[in-house]
Amino acid sequence: MPGDLRTAGALTTAAVAAATALALAGAQEPPPDRDRPPASGAAGATGATGPSGHEGSAPAPLPRSAPVALSIGAIGVRARLLEMGLRDDGSLEDPPLDDADSAGWYALGPTPGEAGPAVITGHRDTAEGPSVFLRLEELRPGDRFTVGREDGSTPEFEVVRTRRADKDGFPTERVYGPTPHPEIRLITCAGAFDPTTGHYAENLIVFGRMVG
Fold this sequence. Notes:
With about 210 residues, the chain is mainly beta. The protein has 2 helices and 10 strands, in the order H-E-E-E-E-E-E-E-E-H-E-E. The chain has one domain. A hairpin with a 2-residue loop joins strand 5 (about 125) and strand 6 (about 130).
């Protein structure tokens, strides 16, 4: 936050959750149920309608094409999107700390517009000041944003709901579990900042669905 100094580990999004959920992403072949991580807390399977609950109302999925830009007018975000994979330990890579105008797209999952949940992560802030997702918590259901893709298309998404989750209770299946329609998750840190660890206590997750 402005006026506070954050350490280099300030994002610490659902890194471990991403690793365990790798095969759950919609673009991948799902593993047998016995290999899937248990849901955390009240989070269960995403379900046939996804978090929007609007089965049959979603536009047709788009073919795969890497995202390159994210525009969220409601909170003044115009960000470059960088491909993020997994580290050797299976945790999700973070976007670079020294680029406050970029966010990371989980490249082993669906691209935005494909069937399934595309995942984009961004820093809230760093030791140098505010970063790309500082105002993410201001988004409300009904707010819309667009993703620019390499093929020139710009699918539009609508916020369905937002959720905070403790880092040790991340709703892995809700975020990465397969969905029949194109959906998206925007993730950053939230809650109290612990200066001794350099991490926030929670994650903020914005759930969205493609509308056009």
